[in-house]
Amino acid sequence: MLYLFLYPLHTRFPVLNVLRYQTFRSVLAGLTALALSLALGPLLIRRFRLANIGQTIREEVPQSHQKKAGTPTMGGLLIVASCLAATILLADPRDPYIWIALFVTVAYGAIGLTDDYLKLKRGRGKGLTGGRKLLWQFGCAFIAATVLFGIFSFSRTLYFPFLKRLHPTLPLWAYVPLAMVVMVGASNAVNLTDGLDGLAIGPVMTTSFCYWVFTYVAGNLKFARYLDVAHVEGVGEVAIFCAALIAASMGFLWFNAYPASMMMGDVGALALGGALGVVALLAKQEFVLPIAGGIFVLEAVSVIMQRYYYKLTHKRIFRMAPIHHHFELGGWPETVVVVRFWIISIVCGLVALSTLKLR
Predict the structure, then answer these.
(1) Average pLDDT of span 313-327
(2) Per-residue DSSP letter, 196
(3) What is the three-class DSSP state of 124?
(4) pLDDT in the model for residue 4
(5) Strand partners, 160
(6) Which of 207, 273, 293, 343 can bridge 186 by disulfide, Cβ–Cβ 3.0-4.6 Å?
(7) Separation of alpha carbons 186 and 280, rounded Å
(8) Whole-angstrom Cα distance, residue 225 to residue 228?
């Protein structure tokens, strides 16, 4: 909104001409989101404590986690609110891609909020059933994908990392389900990763940074042509959303670092994963997401492997799934697991960014 109000004044105040640059507005959005999250965090923690909104710990997780019971949860509201406010203030509200990204983020956050509320009300971590959660996730993803591809006629051409000449175009009936799977898969993968203090938010920031680069490049015709990637007119504004997401996550990490004084809850995990999924679609870099978000893939695959292997053999591959619990039970301190997973995430992000040139 500030962009629409201030930029037209650049003819009278030349300094406002800098607002035309998405990089500058990305920095402003990031600073705004960071300031909001740092300012609102203590207030939110106090309110949650007064309202007894505390984390419920499942019995099957390692015993060391039982001490975290009662830690204020639903801190994802801080991330979503800060990112939402900064994006609306600094991005061009006439850009439809911004609203699609915000819709998915808020819709998935609402699903997570419902799940968190039911867990608190019922106790013992009994929130939405897996089936209902997936139904709502796929429903919101269907709306977003239908609007994107059906109304705005978004390109249905696929682009693959490391493969320069392979660009198949899918029919609408095939691309919409693919887009839905990307959003739902990313959302649940981030949710599975959120099991240790600061574990999920680190890879969220590195992956968001990758897509800040991807969206800016895709929205810039010269860069897109030079790097031979898909040019998506208008998607550069989504880079501002990515910058706000990074900074809002950074502000949340201030309170989520070990020992955490606030947990993100499903309202944060589902919203952040959904945001990454829809941004990957908008940047035409869907198939780079498993690389950039390698940690999320590792966590999700470990759960799938453990579940189906146990059904077949009644034996476990890992001591416990998701895999971060496996390393915990193997003797790694929680902080060691988190930092090492962050390092892996940074490496994954660098590999993802290299796909811009290694084609």
Answers:
(1) 90
(2) S
(3) coil
(4) 78
(5) 163
(6) 273
(7) 10
(8) 5
Is residue 53 helix, strand or coil?
Answer: coil
- Which residue type occupies 131? G
Percent of all residues in the chain with a pLDDT value above 90, rounded to a whole number: 68
The dihedral sign for the CA sequence 88, 349, 139, 179: positive
pTM for the complete prediction?
Answer: 0.94
Tokens 């496996």 appear where? 326
CA distances from 357 to 40, 120, 163 (A): 40, 48, 11
**Would you give the end-to-end CA distance of the chain in angstroms?**
38
Burial of 82 (C-beta count, 10 Å sphere; 0-12/13-18/19+): buried
Contact status, residue 206 vs residue 292, Cβ threshold 8 Å: yes
Q: Whose CA is closest to 214, among 274, 278, 153, 169? A: 278
Amino acid at 282: L
Q: Which residues fall within 8 angstroms of residue 309, CB to CB, at 6 or more apart?
A: 315, 316, 317
| Residue entry with tokens 């690389």 | 291
